[in-house]
Design goal:
The structure is a single chain. The protein is mainly α. Helices cover 83% and strands 0% of the residues. The longest helix has 37 residues. The relative contact order is 0.10.
Length: 465
Amino acid sequence: MTRTLATLQQMVNLLFGVSAPATLEQQRYVRIIQAVVAGIAQQGTQVILRVLSVTFALPLLAQERFGIWVTIQNLMLWMTLADFGIANGLISDVARAYSEDHHEEAQRYVAAAFWLLTGLCLILLLIFVVIWLNVDWAGLLKVETAEARAEVGPAIGIAVALFILNLPLTLTPRIYHACQHGHIGNLWLMAGNLLSIVAFVVVITVQGSLTALVVATFGSTLLVACISTAWLYFRSQPQLRPSFSALDWSIGWRLGRDSFQFLLIQFAWLVLFQTDNMIIASQLGAGEVASYSIAWDLFLYTGFLSSVLTYPLWSSYSAAFAKRNMRWIRRTFFATTGLSLLVTAVLVGVLLLLGRQIIDIWSRGTVTADQTLLIGMAAWTLLSVWGRSIASVLNSIKKIRLQAIAGVLTAILNVVLSLYWIQIYGLVGVIMATVVAYSILIVPLSVQTLRVLLQPDAEGLEAAS
């Protein structure tokens, strides 16, 4: 008992920085756990904001303006493609250079990404201003009430403008992860969510407009992102500050090439996530979307552990690959993947037993879900956990071409199968299509990952030579 308490005390001291890790491997584990704990807290604040936006925004805005609010949130999901994959393309290079103490090289990568996104930000702003001034947003979204017609244009304009201005700042949490300080990045993201929650509550309390709601939530996120970025470049990691003199166009070209493949991967994931509801609405009617959407939301957070592990593992693997520490990578991969699958399987099992009752209570009896649909959602959730685990390995060494090609083909296959099977199996056919399409993608990527993991470590290479 005394020994167990001593071990727990040692773990707590390591996690809170009271004592220093004894080895590099121990340091990586500590950083991963810190990032995961902070990531879970950050996701918790996201859930709170999501619940608040449905529970309180709907009564305040009424149905039509609430529909605009939901449309803006969905638009922001597609707008994540606007960084062209540059933020994700940066992680592996900075993690590798930083782990080898090549801070000048890491700075050049950061500078290339920052100034590419800054230039992109200015171009997108100009394009959007022209579009915004020449589009009848009320007519496009078929808005009818006078209040909604007056607010829809400014609300969309402000939301998109704030999102575009935030583009260069999306690098900040990725850089924190690359430097093995992912917990700091996650804490800053959590701070942004908390400020958004406070601002949201204030707007609801004073019964503000849709435009005020947009400014409060998206403006809070941008404000905290600015503070976080300033802290990174001037306090936490000043050696990575993206001065214009550190800009190297050859690095920018390589980063842009790799980032395009990450863009294709992001696009494929968005298609997998976002097209199902559109297909259901077009083939079965909008009334059937609720059953599928609520079931999807119910299973969404069961894979939370693999989700918060993605970036910490990605950057840690990159650092370990730079030192050819394959033994640590293999051990960590199988341990974290096994734990993620176990936790997800338990949560999924609970939902399979109680999911229909939960949906009935959640929707106040207005929505029902077939048990077969829940089984399909469970299969998809477990597949996605495995997919995130192998993606962390492949992304860490930029083996992304196969992911990009397979991802696009999978997205196309998913749409084709969904359109066909929905006619035969109804809602279940849509999730079946997603599971089958993604299962086909997983096979070659799993083989590629296992080949990477079986590479010899530094000691093995020395012995062979």
